[in-house]
User: Fold these one by one.
Assistant:
Number 1:
Amino acid sequence: MLGVLLLAFSLVTIVHAELCRPDAQNAFKVRLSIKTALGDNAYSWDASEEYLFKAMVAFAMRRYSSKETTQLSNVLLCNMTERVSFWFVVTDSSRNVTTVPGSEVEAAIRMNRNRINGAFLLTDNTLQFLKISSTLSPPIEPNVPVWLIVFSVVAGLTVVGIAFLVVSGIWRRKKNNESVETEDLEDKYDTSVTIENGIPCDILDLKTGQINGVYTADDERFTPL
Amino acid sequence: MEKSRPLWDNPLQFVFACISYAVGLGNVWRFPYLCQMYGGGGFLIPYIIMLIVEGMPLLYLELAVGQQMRQGSIGAWKIISPYLSGVGIASVVVSFFLSMYYNVINAWAFWYLFHSFQDPLPWASCPLNSNRTGYDEECAKTTSTQYFWYRKTLNISSSIEENGNIQWEQAVCLILAWLVVYLCILRGTESTGKVVYITASLPYFVLLIYLIRGLTLHGAVNGLIYMFTPKLEQLANPKAWINAATQIFFSLGLGFGSLIAFASYNEPNNNCERHAIIVSLINSTTSIFASIVTFSIYGFKATFNYESCINKVILMLTNVFDLEEGSLTADNLDSMKNYLTSTYPNEYAELLPQVKNCSLEAELDTAVQGTGLAFIVYSEAIKNMEVSQLYSVLYFIMLLTLGIGSMLGNTAAILTPLTDSKFLSIHLPKEVISGIVCFINCIVGLVFTLEAGNYWFDIFNDYAATLSLLLIVLVETIAVCYVYGLRRFEKDLHLMIGHKPNWYWKIMWAFASPVLIVSLFIFYLTDYIRTGTLQYQAWDATEGQLVTKDYPTYALAVIGLLVAASTMCIPLTALIIFIMKRLKRNVDAEPWVMHLP
């Protein structure tokens, strides 16, 4: 009895060792960077964390295939290093000693990546499943590009400024023209009736001029030597 | 009665206008590059010597000519000698070429400014590829800032032959840039005089903020030490002296006619000697100030990249050898590498090509100048700062004010001669002439918004102004000293500012500056001839880096045309005037001939 048990146990271990080893078929390498992500709040990786990992992978498989067949014992971890990195496979209990195809595992992990990350307080960069590419989230794009809004504001201000200057220039020029015109009109009125010292000019004989007696009386304009 | 010439409201506006024009993008992006290439702190020696020998005298000369003749460049040289009005025309042509391509830089600055209002900044990370499993291919090969510049901003094609379509986003930014310039020059000195208060002072404000921020950045000290350690052996390199002379020359904006235009709006008794010294000193001081800022930013960027490189190596080694997290640090990296080589020789040997040797020196040595520095390096440094949006907005507003300040000078150089000419100013008001000039420049400038536009931009940047300006300034100096006469010029200056120029100015004008310009001219010509075919840097999207290519023949033809268009104006106009005078003399002489028995 004991011998049979021992045999079975050793068989299982050997089988496990064969199923889960680096670069095995359908095996994936996982790498965690806990200190990078959490700094001082980093937790240490121990057997309980491994248990949680197995639980999360089993959860992911259950969600993906929606048949409640994957058990904790189906997830095998091996080759734990100090880095914290290890390999894992998911075995299929319905078919003995085989592993679930890698594509299924990959799809399951991808579907539930956020949940798995959240359980470990890590991100896609710090909890890496090598060979499983993550879907990067695109940056948030607003409906109207921001630059167009700022551009429209600046362009609007500039156009308003130009229009204001041009219009005020035209208005100023018109006012100048009007005042020049009114000056011309006043000149015209003046020439029609030019008054000089109360005497209308047309009466004066412009050819001969008006002689001012005060000055012409004085013949001696130069002082004699 | 003749309309009186518009004047600056006060001499301060004139000084600000000159500073705003002279202090431009070249101070921010060319001088730091030259400092780095030619011996760090030691470069200041040839720079200051050239400033004294060449910069100040030539600046004083141009300001004095403008203030004395009270006309734009064409009118001013016509007064000195009718045969020399070609010099003025050449200045206008060169200014025209300059304003065509210079405003494109303002368009790019607007583009980056508008994109600075996002969180995170769009050049901070690569966009995702189509099935969202990784980053875009081109972006992964190069940095995200280079990708944003070459792909998102320029959408550059792989060579100058492939013209592509007009990028509507760039075209729209260019139109906006021209509208802003039009707004500033619309009313002539009335509007320009107010705008230059802002365009002259705002850059200093921003540079000061950046100086404080830059000096407090991690790793800034590395950049400053690198820049200021003088490598005096570079002084023996003639290229250092030539580049110092060229930098002073172009930085002050001599020969474009802008300084003559600005000075023509001065009061006749304005002390232009004092202003010339002030403007040239401020220009050089700003260059040095800007290079301190640039090098602290450089140091920060280089240190950041160096530390990321080290971290990448650490991560790779940790992952491959499954070591405990945190066991490899920057300090023990070398000893751990030795340990790993001895313990796992085979795996380490396989890994060796990927283990990069990170070097801070190599990062600092990557010298960049021109648009690369302003848009790629600075945006890369900014994205790593905290509150990056604020610094980004400040920086691009500074670039804009620098650029628009220089554009005001460029357009003044074109518009002043046009508005001075009786023919145009009778038929069209000033606003319409400015509008037409801006419109023509804008339409031609759309060429630079094509996919290959940046290659055409480089052609204009490298060849439109360089040789022609040297020739123009040479002819100017010789004209004033020998055609107009140095004594006559001295007397005019005595009338204007109250004292004669002392022996220093006279020696520089008559001998030192012409000799220097001739030697620069000879150097450039021999350099062009020696290098044979001209080449340019093209962006290779598949490799994610720049490659050197030869210019096709039609591009070489355009280069030749650019240089010829401005330089040929001088002899051609002299010839035409000579012929016209001959004809007029023959026509006038005939009645006399007939009277002779």
Number 2:
Amino acid sequence: MFSRACQRLLLPRYLVQNSSKVLLSSKKALPVYTKNFTKFSNYRFYSSKGDVKLTSEVYPSLKRFEHFKRLTSDDIVHFKQVLDNDDNLVLTADLDFFNEDHLRKYKGQSSLVLKPKTTEQVSKILKYCNENSLPVVPQSGNTGLVGGSNPVFDEIVLSLANLNKIRSFDNVSGILKADAGVILENADAFLAENGFIFPLDLGAKGSCFIGGNVATNAGGLRLLRYGSLHGSVLGLEVVLPDGTVLNSLNSLRKDNTGFDLKQLFIGSEGTLGIITGVSVLCPTRPKAVNVAFLGVESYEAVQKAFTESKNYLSEILSAFEFMDLNSQKLSKEFLKQKSHPLDEEHPFYILIETSGSNKDHDDVKLESFLEYAMENEIVSDGVVAQDETQLKTLWNWRESVSEASTIYGGVYKYDVSIPIQDLYRLVEDVKVRLSDFNLIGETEEFPVKDAIGYGHIGDGNLHLNVAVRRYSKEVESCLEPFVYEWIKKHNGSISAEHGLGFQKKNYIGYSKSDIEINLMKQLKKLYDPKLILNPYKYINFDK
Amino acid sequence: MSSNKLRILVPIKRVLDYQLKPRINKTNDGIITTGVKFSINPFCDIAVEEAVRIREKNADLVDTVHAVSIGPLKSQDILRSSMAKGIDSSTLIETSEKDRELEPLIIAKILKKIVEKNNSNLIILGKQSIDDDSNQTGQMLAGLLNWPQATNAAKVELNPSDNSINITREIDGGEDIVNAKLPLIITTDLRLNEPRFATLPNIMKAKKKPLEKLKVGELGINLENKLKILKIEEPVQKQPGIKVSSVDELIEKLQEKKLL
């Protein structure tokens, strides 16, 4: 695992790559978030056509729940009191950062952002909101990809940013207890000092909070090795919609005493309760990490490489990612690099990472795998990182694809689970469909620039990104429900790891049965009868 | 003997990886070296890249490109990696793990022997290593061999017409362009080039390239360091500043600290 002690590869700040005016606004400096200079902080990557449209305007059929109260100045006075009359904790102006998602696809109309500092304050706020039928959107790092952490109408935004302390760490068991608002990268840096690693890693690590990661059951780059948060989270501190504080942060590896309630909240996307504290079991930090970046000629070769890598690398394999050629072309443009790690173009690329306790052993294993792969023509070309700097560079070619997809203006993201053999066919079918609808092309008149595929193939998880010059209903209706129906036909999941949020709440039926959906609704109504917590998301309660 | 052709020598060093934070050992006289990643010194990597590029651009002018490293057995990793990038052959001068690290002057004396053994006429090495930041080895070697030296190179151009080389050097005021005939020592600076990745086919081929091993004690050089490290300590942590809420408060604080 590369060291967190040093500054991450500082990427140049991006100018929009098209004909319209350059929009780099430093007016929207974000005081709290500048501590970690990351891809997402400080500057917003702007969609080419100026301001973001209000979600309520883009989806006019959506109606604000009538039983929700509207905010009054008395409410604001009350919240100010709860939050020690500190003006930094109660924001009523310049709320674009909180109202917009970072893909600049969704925008809410909240007029109040609260930033409590303690669990008790969160509890008081929720209790009051519940009593007064005031809707609340819990917000972590606001790096979600399905609009799940932004208001739709005038919901109050409750930001977890100020609950950012690491509470304790036991370096015998590896159990970390921390506030929900701790930035993932910071948690990992802390663990690195102690010889441990956070069992989750993803591109937004410099901005996302662990509370949000848990609430969305984030998958990330190392699920292959460390498993899902459903396994590594040992306990949670959650504030229920009525203000009750549920504290199950007892950090026991094994505890079979009753229903495992925390599992309900992991992946609940802030609709059952607000996570304020997390207890995570952390593995020891690997001493030796290797990264190989390979070029292969077909999707079959990708699958073959995966099978063989499991054979040869087995317990040291910690990540297996794939990307198609066009995703690397976008990355190259985005990163403004003159050359790619591999000289020639290949239809597919693979990034393999190994992590182990002994460099010499791992080197031998990796070498024998690579030799086998080259000799048997599974792999055409590749490079191996010689030091940490090259390791970061290679990872960057993979991690930057997500943001690179937005450089032409915006992106439609589909994060899906499909049986591995069929996985890439979705990308091909979508390209054909976009072409049939005459929506994809190289010039400005076409809304779509490209459809690319990449992702955690080791987990059967594809990220299909349709890079667009502008968001439009035309493109959306061409893609949806086509993509979801395709997934259903192949018995896949319409949201492998990004969650349902706002974007996919209407499509849960493609992956879950009516019975399952009904049980979920029952639980939601049980914990949140007034539906105040993150309304209009996750499960459809719209009339 | 084709004495006009280039016989390039690239000395390289294995150091604590550039991205890692060094930790001081318990006896405060060195850094912790167990369980941490070691890699090629970034400036040495640039030297390897430059040597390989010179060969690629002037194949008929270059006879051999040879790398040498003075260090523990594990240094063969960086030699293999360099050969995967295009170095023809290499030598490892093995030091014992228990030996204290050798000073630049001793390294220079060892390199002098290697230069004479290989009849090298162009030595390209990193300007300094990131562990001791001495920036001395290249210059001392030039002194011992009585050769010209061009340090902190940002650009290297061959002039085959008169067997000389133009080197653009980084200096405080900007750039300094010097010209020298062979034999010559060049030390590399950051802007010189961007090292390539070692590709798989070449990594496989490099396994068959010659890597000779010598023991440092066999060279007949006195290995006693003239300098003794008394203590290593971390730099003083920068104290956080304080935020003031008004100009008046700022003036007050400055006066308190007797700065106004």
Number 3:
Amino acid sequence: MIFVELLCRYPYVTGTSVIGIKYKDGILMAADMGGSYGSTLRYKSVERMKPIGKHSLLGASGEISDFQELLRYLDELILYDNMWDDGNSLGPKEVHSYLTRVMYNRRNKFNPLWNSLVLGGVKKGQKYLGTVVSMIGVHFEDNHVATGFGNHLARPILRDEWHENLSFEDGVKLLEKCMLVLLYRDRSAINKLQIAKITEEGTTISPPYSLKTFWGFSAFKNPTLGAEGSW
Amino acid sequence: MDVGLEDTNAPHSMGTTIIGVTYNGGVVLGADSRTSTGVYVANRASDKITQLTDNVYVCRSGSAADSQIVSDYVRYFLHQHTIQLGQPATVKVAANLVRLLAYNNKNMLQTGMIVGGWDKYEGGKIYGVPLGGTILEQPFAIGGSGSSYLYGFFDQEWKEGMTKDEAEKLVVKAVSLAIARDGASGGVVRTVIINSEGVTRNFYPGDTLPLWHEELEPQNSLLDILSSSSSDPMVT
């Protein structure tokens, strides 16, 4: 009986990978705008990255309704923080810690929030990038993080090409390189994405845009040359 | 409910086709009228577009029982909210009440809903609340098992800023196309138009709908065909 809540819990409307990297002035994050419903690419304008307070940016993959609920919890958290009116405000480290506790406690009650989260931010010059890996509550920080498929496709690229003090332009190009691979190889990815930047000054989330794809390999035109009947 | 540990990539299909569309001045909600229990059609003329307040309606899909109880609760809460507020509730509030029930009972409920209406602050608005309790404001929304057949149709035919008549025609055409291919959808097409002037209900029985591929003009009897045709239609 106690397992009923977990057994009956499966995600319905889901978002796919989120990628985050540290760069010279703060954090850059990228996510597409897809909300999949099983294998159907049902919703194509879902914002999966949202600013939290003054210093943080949250990106989520997994069940969208649980992400929306998390945003409500965070809204309340930030509200109560503001009500102290004491000049201090919650930084990304604190928000990340709060999220970890929420996720882990729900997991202990067999009623998880079905998400993987990326939390990035800057406070007093200190850059922070952390991830809550899954509904289990595992969490860690790094210079570059990703959820879902991003871990398998984007992290290897980032391990090779990320370096300290990336410029904004280089950071965006790097993220776009990763997002393009995900677009080619992740079935749940859609070609409509946003890139978000958070610095000491604040957060900006780009308007939605699409990437150009390349199909001009000669092998693509004639893939079964020399092996008729193959694929 | 023997559906635990299923492939997480396969949500349940829900018998019905429901649609909600915004237009220049309001919204048009549409639905089929078939309620099935297994393969039997329990009600061939059901009304799936349910009133929540004077200015907000909801299209119900999935479990009939679940969607009815959710709309009953929301209607009750909205009624009290309206008394407290002293003016009509907004579409956003209605949709969020639906979301609250859908999200907090996600383990037990199997219903996807489309909330649509008109209020003086935001005009015509459509909110989709699919399985799980996500809430998404959209220019148009489709739901139910019949909606699978309409994604391509709407990708092609949807336009921003339609007139009331264009919007209603689109909805009727779409529900009719879904009925043609989805076994769980059928019967008549019902529409509800909501704008600043009020609410209009329309009813489109099968014989008023266009015929699609491989569908034939309905006849009273073979005998009419035989008597009216000159050559002998009974051929081997």
